[in-house]
Design a protein that fits this description.
globular
């Protein structure tokens, strides 16, 4: 039986690890930026892993409205 009190860390160099380091350095990123920064086409899935698999619950997803285009997008940051 696995001990759930200690969560493992993402593998060094993985998309999760790169995202976590970015967030822990006080930076945020959008879905589009995730593609360019980390090569991730599914940042929401990586954020889910960071929260649920690795236990980093301080990551929040904000929905941002772009007034010039009327489109909405996600921005991820750590609180």
């Amino acid at each position: 039986m696995m001990d759930n009190t200690k969560k493992s860390k993402p593998k060094k160099g993985s998309q999760c690890a790169m995202m976590l380091e970015h967030l822990q350095n006080g930076k945020c990123f959008t879905s589009l930026e995730a593609l360019h920064l980390f090569g991730s086409i599914q940042p929401a899935a990586r954020i889910w892993e960071l929260k649920n698999k690795f236990g980093f619950s301080g990551i929040v997803t904000e929905m941002v409205n772009d007034e010039s285009t009327g489109k909405q997008y996600a921005r991820y940051r750590m609180v």
